[in-house]
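Database export, one record per block. Field names are fixed; values are copied verbatim from the stored entry.
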Amino acid sequence: MKAFEIAEFVGGAVSGNSQLEITSFAALNAAKDGDISFLERAENFSGTNASCVMVPAGFDTTKVPSAITVKDPKLAFARIAQKLRVHKNLSGIHETAVVPPDDESGTHIRANFIGAQVSIGKGTYIGEGAVIHDGVRIGNNVTIKKFTVIHPNCVIYNDVEIGYDCVIHAGTVIGADGFGYVRDENGVYHQFPQVGTVVIEDNVEIGANSCIDRGALGETRIGEGTKIDNLVQVGHNVNIGKHCVIAAQTGISGSVTIEDGCVIGGQVGFGDHVTVQSGAVIGSQAGILPGKIVRPGVWWGTPIQPLDEYKRQNAHVKSLERMKADLKEIKRKLD
């Protein structure tokens, strides 16, 4: 991308050579010719070899070949770095990949790169600019939209839909059966039908070795812009809203609803049919009982409670040893 194109993309003003070609990104002190970097505070500048730098207002733009002045240089840098990822320069189809030809059943494969030992089912659509790394298995009637990256050894089951510009990290499984069973009078468990689907909206990132179960009769949905860490379990019929953040080792039971903009810490456990309302922040290792409604605010503990109540409870627990000693002294005096 040229410097002026980057400026248009991030909503900044370009100074210097607007025609410079930018091919990669790097930290300010490690950047080289062709790289873009960023500077958060003008007074901290001590030189760089970068061709272009995202800078705050007030920076002397004559110090670099090309500068883009923006309100938040770090945010602008993060946005453009996504467009300059090295893996998007990959191209071709490896000779060991099993890729069906385009046909009337809906098969349409336009990925930039398909790696070794990849297997793709019939009726699947993969858009332009997509990157499918080694060892990925993609089922039948799957949709993967433009510029999405699937890292090695992921499994995408039949009928899953993945949006534009998503990133699915290594070892993730999307569309496996949900954990849903009905128990009969003899104590035997029978699987409830798991024939729904998974819909992942645009610009979602899912960490390594996570599992997103398909809906039972409906869908499991992950909203636009949501970021999910490694080793997260998302159960069947879960609906996660837009721009949520969910940290590692969180387990979300079936039919949970997490509304837009929520923040979930690591190792949080959700019972089924929980609703987390927009604006809620849940601290690490919290436990949420089935059917609970978590309202906006900061929550912690097991069972989950507002942060102020959790802190008071912790203070009481810490004082138990002192209270025990006081009671022992009172008993001694009474004796």
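Remark 1: Residues 309-335 form one domain.
Remark 2: The chain has four helices and 38 strands.
End of record.
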